[in-house]
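Q: My labmate handed me this sequence with no annotations at all. I'd like to see what the chain might look like in three dimensions before we decide whether it's worth expressing. Could you predict it?
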Amino acid sequence: MSQTIALLTGASRGLGAALARGLLAPGAHLVTMARRTDDDLAALAAAKGVKLEQISVDLADTAAAAQVAARVFDALPRNAGRYLLINNAGTVHPVANTAALNDPEAIGAAFALNVTSVMLLTSRFLAATQGLQARRQIVNISSGAGRNPNAGWAVYCSTKAALDMYTRVVNAEHREHGVQAVSLAPGVVDTGMQEAIRSSSEESFPALARFQELKASGKLSSPEDVARRILALTERDDFGQTEIDDIRNYA
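A: Here is what I predict for the chain of 251 residues:
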């Protein structure tokens, strides 16, 4: 019997990679879904004696995301004490003024990854764990951008706002059945996404200078520290009481 079965998207780099390493605890069974597998993670899991399954998938491909969701959750063991789904995969692109947002493929890919894949995986998670005498937790990695507008981030802000509302609906439907879902902003983390943000043009993203200054002044949080705090939050007795949350509210 696994104490925790954890399912994590976007595990190949940045915050996701740090979360994956933090989830390699005794008694855990970790399933990752990302565009690339991680040989170092596999070696670490083997050294710790933790069961690890790595699935290579582009979750921006809706058909592929649906197929993987079905396959993963159809095979999910039903004897764990806790089931934890962390929807971490996401993209900030396309970054552009609303007058220039005219690429339907780019817009569609962002919504597919940031929103649709979350819905597909969460649906399967809810169905697969329904009725189990276990703790059932969902962490959707959101952003302050979903709660405050940022020029140039119309798509990113909209997808994260959608993620926040989706989390609230999940709770409205399933909290009484023991599900705990949180849409969690991780703060400004020193990841590849931040590199992408800093490579934007000031014309497309007027707040560029502020993000460059955050990096230059060392004010970005490390992925490892944020991952540690997120995983600590999932262990708290009051996890789920605040459904739209920010990890910066916790030490």
